[in-house]
Amino acid sequence: MRQPALVQYALEPLAVELRDVAIPEIGDADVLLRVGAVSVCGSDVHQAYNTHSWPVSVPVVLGHEFAGTVARAGREVKRFREGDRVVSETAADVCGECLLCRTGRYNLCPQRKGFGYGIDGAMASYVRVPARCLHAIPDALPFSIACLAEPHAVAYNAMCVNSTIRPGDFVVVLGPGPIGLLCARMAALAGADPLVVVGLSSDAPRLDTAIRLGATHAIDAQCEPLEEGIRRLNPLGADLVCDATGASRPLDVALTLARPGGQVTKVGWSPDRVAVDMTPLVQKNVTLQGSFSHNFPVWERVIHLLERGRTLPDEIVGMKAPLDAWRDAFEAMHDGRVIKSILVP
Ligand SMILES: [Zn+2]
Ligand SMILES: [Zn+2]
């Protein structure tokens, strides 16, 4: 049996095409998932343009943000059966034996491989998924929203697990991309106030979205001196600065904007190595925290929030397209015309 799949076949710009590939075989502990919707991640776009900073084993089917229906379940699968509606986590392969796996922090397993770069992903009709990755979703939650659970989980882990936000805390989010906007939404739900989202002039529509998602202020850092804007709200600086720019350099800015005793959480990164002034980190006793991926309890929380409509996911979806229109969907995100595209295979 064959299917169309969006394959990255080489480590060169635009070495991506729709190919006719075999429908995957499944093992006893896997399910075959009929993909209902798969959202395009910034990382898919980076891989398509060959600007990614992580190892990709080509050829590989792209896509790691997906929801669908169990089409077939392996013999050892007990929690799911044919017809169940599910979303899948992204840690497609982990060792299951190391300290991190055994303590439920399998997202940090040194042998972790994810869908869409190390293991074939979901930009296809069917994808093979180990059953341990699955979460049931309610019937009322459409696939086109459920597939956004993954970026929601990234934001929840960054803001609500790896950072501390109390009602009335002053939170700044740098970078209004999909992850930055979802981080801002999580901060709003956690009671951040003021909540400032910072972008560039080209981000104007995204800064408007940030306000609709609950930011109290949006700052265009190319038009307005950023540090002054922050100190006007509180002369000490922010309790928490989340750097979701996906670049390395803004770490300096984040450390400057944090108040003494504050936190800086870095989510998303680039391979650039930058010189950073350590003075504010040490002198202000700032806690610097990286945040990577997510695990089981985070997914359960996020699915609950999606079911309750608490995160306003429609605000970030700009395009829904069939799989063969993938080029439009990728380009729209690459050019910044939409925040997030969704493919319906
Ligand atoms: Zn993603
Ligand atoms: Zn492990």
Question: Brief overview, please?
Answer:
The protein is α/β, with parallel strands linked by helices. The protein has helices spanning 42-48, 99-102, 143-146, 149-161, 178-189, 204-212, 226-233, 251-257, 279-283, 296-307, 326-334, and strands at 2-8, 16-22, 30-39, 60-61, 65-73, 85-88, 126-130, 134-136, 171-174, 195-199, 217-220, 238-243, 258-266, 287-290, 317-322, 340-344. The longest helix is centred in the middle third of the chain and has 13 residues, at 149-161.
Give the end-to-end Cα distance, rounded to a whole number of Å: 16 Å
Helix fraction by DSSP (H/I, runs of at least 4): 25-40%
Number of helices: 11
Q: Cα-atom Rg, whole angstroms?
A: 20 Å
Structure description:
It is a single chain. With 345 residues, the protein is an alpha/beta fold. It is built from 11 helices and 16 strands. The chain has helices at 42-48, 99-102, 143-146, 149-161, 178-189, 204-212, 226-233, 251-257, 279-283, 296-307, 326-334, and strands at 2-8, 16-22, 30-39, 60-61, 65-73, 85-88, 126-130, 134-136, 171-174, 195-199, 217-220, 238-243, 258-266, 287-290, 317-322, 340-344. Strands 3, 5, 6, 7, 8, 15 and 16 form a 7-stranded mixed beta sheet that branches. The structure holds zinc ion (2 copies). One zinc ion binds next to helix 2.
